[in-house]
Amino acid sequence: MSSEGDLLRLTESMIDEKAGVIIPDGGRKKTGARHIARLTKRRREILEEIRAERRSGAAVPNVSGLVFTDQGRQAN
């Protein structure tokens, strides 16, 4: 995922862990071209950190199902 816009609209359904890829729905936002990004070790680690925070209640999923949010954490 080379585009910040592609990353910000990432949902769990776009992540194929078995195949080891991320495929944005509808292709690239600006061009619509199909884009496939490798699910690297570091990307897997980041996703697991986010999922662990959700499981612990430290972060809450948003209603749109987006993986990355700027307000997805519970207020203290």
Query: Helix and strand string, N-terminal first?
Result: HEEEH
- Describe the biggest sheet? 3 strands, antiparallel
Contiguous helical run count: 2
Question: Separation of termini?
Answer: 32 Å
Computed over alpha carbons, the radius of gyration is 13 Å
Measured by DSSP, the beta-strand proportion falls in: 5-15%
Total number of beta strands: 3
**What structural category characterises the helix and strand content?**
alpha+beta
As a percent range, the share of helical residues equals: 25-40%
Question: For the residues shown, what is the average pLDDT?
Answer: 76
In spatial order, strands of the major sheet run 1-2-3
pLDDT < 50 stretches = none
Overall outline: globular
Plain-language structure description:
The chain contains two helices and three strands. It has helices spanning 4-8, 41-56, and strands at 15-16, 21-22, 37-38. 28% of the residues lie in helices and 8% in strands. 5% of the residues are buried. With 76 residues, the protein is an alpha+beta fold. Strands 1-2-3 form a three-stranded antiparallel sheet, with no helix packed on it.
Keywords:
3-stranded antiparallel beta sheet, 2 helices, alpha+beta, 28% helix, single chain, 76 residues, globular
Per-chain topology:
Elements lengths: L3 H5 L6 E2 L4 E2 L14 E2 L2 H16 L20
Describe the structure concisely for a colleague.
The protein has helices at 4-8, 41-56; strands at residues 15-16, 21-22, 37-38. The protein is an alpha+beta fold and 76 residues long. Strands 1-2-3 form a three-stranded antiparallel sheet, with no helix packed on it.
